[in-house]
Write a structure and sequence with these properties.
By secondary structure, the protein is mainly alpha-helical. About 40% of the residues lie in helices and about 0% in strands. It has a domain at about 15-50.
Length: about 60
């Protein structure tokens, strides 16, 4: 059965929770300038085969 309810109406996948616990007490700079965001940006650029692009993470939700 498919549900098109919002993406925050259920719990997270166990692997996501595991990684959140692993890095829970790690302190980082905010607003997408942390090491994890920078790694994700590099991964996306590599995946797309484009190194000359800007990637910005935009928060959303209510």
């Amino acid at each position: 059965m498919y549900s098109f309810m919002n993406d925050y109406s259920e719990g997270a996948h166990p692997r996501i929770l595991e990684l959140l616990m692993k890095y829970n007490l790690e302190q980082n700079i905010g607003y997408g300038e942390d090491i994890h965001s920078n790694k994700a940006k590099a991964y996306i650029k590599n995946l797309l085969g484009k190194d000359n692009m800007d990637i910005h993470f935009i928060p959303g939700g209510n």
